[in-house]
Design a protein that fits this description.
This protein has nine helices and eight strands. By secondary structure, the chain is of the alpha+beta class. Strands 1-8-3-6 form a four-stranded antiparallel beta sheet. Strand 4 and strand 5 form a beta hairpin. Helix 4 crosses helix 5. The longest helix is centred in the last third of the chain and has 27 residues. The radius of gyration is 17 Å and the shape is globular.
Length: 191
């Protein structure tokens, strides 16, 4: 599978080389989920970290008033609830698959054991989580400092397939605007 190779290349880019790469990959379990599956649910402990081989996901929270989408994740991206995975306590967010998806998963227990026994894997895991935290920080800063139009333009520039693969209501929620406002933004950009 091409995405399997892309994921291995991403891992190598983060410093995980042979034989540690094979050792880590051998611990990953391939799982298939149907569109609409919530692999991580708010208020529950989620013991797995996932990598997307095929599919797309949204990360969101639900309040009494509304649903707020924080991000979309595509092939080779990591899916996890930081609080749940690292603190082994209920997470805040829900991660829902927006397409039939193939994921690779590894449990917290296996990651901990691998990191305790293999310095290369421990260093890789630290770099992986560091890169994920930087992405989270960039999204947070973008939410606070950019207009919805700027954020939409950035979304279609960096991840153009999201616009084709994700319903507009979720994109509007991600941008913090109504679907009507998103339609206006799209019309202005297409002029």
């Amino acid at each position: 599978m091409a995405n399997d190779q892309a994921l291995r290349e991403k891992m190598m880019h983060l410093g995980l080389l042979e034989p540690s790469l094979s050792l880590f990959c051998n611990e990953l379990e391939e799982v298939d989920y149907e569109k609409g599956s919530s692999i991580i649910k708010a208020g529950r402990t989620a013991p797995y970290l996932y990598f997307i081989l095929q599919g797309i996901a949204r990360v969101y929270i639900q309040t009494e008033e509304k649903e707020t989408v924080f991000c979309f994740c595509l092939e080779t991206d990591v899916l996890l609830s930081y609080n749940s995975f690292f603190n082994e306590s209920p997470g805040y967010e829900t991660i829902e698959l927006l397409e039939n998806s193939t994921l690779l998963r590894i449990s917290h227990r296996k990651v901990k054991t691998l990191c305790e026994n293999n310095l290369d894997i421990a260093n890789f895991f630290n770099r992986l989580i560091g890169s994920e935290l930087v992405k989270t920080e960039e999204r947070l800063i973008g939410t606070q400092s950019k207009t919805a139009t700027e954020r939409y333009n950035e979304l279609i520039t960096l991840s153009p397939s999201i616009v084709q693969r994700v319903q507009l209501g979720y994109i509007a929620s991600y941008l913090g605007v109504s679907q009507v406002t998103l339609s206006r933004i799209r019309r202005k950009m297409n002029r």
